[in-house]
Amino acid sequence: MSDIETFRSEARDWLEANCPAGARGPDSVLPDVVWGGRRQTFAHDDVKIWLERLIERGWTVPRWPTQYGGAGLTEEQDKVLREEMRAIGTRSPLFSFGMAMLAPVLMEYATEEQKLEHLPKIARGEIRWCQGYSEPGAGSDLAGLQCRAVREGDHYTINGQKIWTSDADVSDWIFALVRTDTEVPKHDGISFVLVDMETEGVSVSPIELISGASPFCETFFDNVRVPIGNRVGEENKGWTIAKRLLQYERSMLAESTGVGSGASTRRQSLLEVARESLATPEGQLPDAGLRDELVQYEMDRLCYGATYQRSTDAAKAGQGMGPESSMFKLYLSEMNQRGSDLRQRLVGHVSLVWDGEDVPAEEREMTRGWLYGKAGTILGGTSEIQMNIIAKRVLGLPD
Ligand SMILES: Cc1cc2nc3c(=O)[nH]c(=O)nc-3n(C[C@H](O)[C@H](O)[C@H](O)COP(=O)(O)OP(=O)(O)OC[C@H]3O[C@@H](n4cnc5c(N)ncnc54)[C@H](O)[C@@H]3O)c2cc1C
CA dist 258 to 263, 266, 347, Å? Predict the structure, then answer.
């Protein structure tokens, strides 16, 4: 038996022995995402047991080195593990900004001490991270940020405001961009710092949106003292790290089908919806125009999936995707909005239900998901900004 076949067989046996019944199969009780953090609660014991067992094995982040909480698996072993997880209808029950965005840049830019401090806590889901990039006057023009960090002895004193900080109210730490020099060109005076949200002077205020409850918050820094040792990379060199993290963010968004479609993994496909809502008893869709759009959407979705897979397979291990992540992010977010609009048209007025005791949760979620989906072409950099990046960095067009 080859090494990889041996690994597959061992992984299968381990999963069989350790994955609790509730965390597998079509009736799995796993929520769409377990984000971890100090405030994490579990609606079902099996979710907690499954997470604890994977943490012990290093399989929440199978490819990370063991000293950082992973299992040091090769790419091939990781793929096999995922296949075996899929085969029993389960998945890794932990996902977070820490894992997808911060950890890769810590691996690349942090000191060994910082890695040992933060990576294992991310791998174990102990600390939930949020992203402190945008400010009221600095979104697309991120480098124009004003949140000020002044060096005083062994710490920085931070004053300023962040906005649109997703889930800041339930996060434990924030990775933030701060201005450490005001005398130089804007890109050259930024540093990347890690801040414990429990530090005195950090406060958070939730923002309400048209779609109802929102993950957004404003985050305020009022004379917040942060040790110099919490800076990642050199002082004033944070812009390089910031951009690298955005590539990981866009790769994460390009991989997810959730934002934009408002789709959860258990949601019906558009074809199923069409069959249920509009098809004749023989299974045909009488509206030829709608049929064409549906088929085009399904083909685009499959092509996207295949192209994305090919590109990620080709990407060098641990190196992320580079500016291509902007192409994928742009295409997926726009395609998801198209899918979401199509879903509305297929189900008709039901898709505009907002509230009411007799309204099924699924219908309410559809309206909110459609509205929230508008965010997909804004978060992680707007579609226009992705097009600018593609024009410059992929197509090589002049400014
Ligand atoms: C769901 C969601 C989650 C988010 N989570 C976070 C988070 O956790 N942390 C965080 O820091 N931020 C977060 N953001 C903020 C997000 O990064 C910003 O909203 C985004 O970068 C756009 O910035 P802005 O809102 O200031 O828009 P603006 O920059 O004011 O843009 C307004 C419009 O002008 C266009 N525009 C601006 N500049 C150009 C240009 N040079 N060329 C062409 N068009 C241009 C834009 O495309 C857009 O249409 C989130 C946003 C969303 C929607």
Answer: 5, 11, 19
Per residue in 94-107, pLDDT (tens digit) is 999 999 999 999 99
Whether the CB-CB separation of 202 and 219 falls below 8 Å is answered with yes
Taking the centre of ligand 1 as the mean of its atom positions, its distance from the CA of residue 152, in whole angstroms, is: 32
| Residue 243 CA to ligand 1 centre (angstroms) | 15
Measured distance CA(162)–CA(204) in Å, rounded: 10
pLDDT, tens digit, 9 for 90 and up, residues 14-31: 999 999 999 998 888 888
CA of 184 to the centre of ligand 1 (A): 24
Q: Which residue has the tokens 């710092």?
A: 193
Q: Show the domains of the chain with their CATH numbers.
A: 3-95 (1.10.540), 129-236 (2.40.110.10), 256-394 (1.20.140.10)
CA distance 275 to 268: 11
DSSP per-residue string spanning 286-302: S-HHHHHHHHHHHHHHH
In this prediction, the residues of the chain whose per-residue pLDDT falls under 50 are 257-265
The ligand 1 site (C-beta within 6 Å) comprises 130-134, 139-140, 162, 164-166, 375, 378-379, 381-382, 384-385, 388
* Among protein residues, the one whose CA lies closest to atom 50 of ligand 1: 379
Long-range contacts of 273-282 (CB under 8 A, 24+ apart): 273/343, 273/346, 273/347, 274/346, 277/346, 277/347, 277/348, 278/346
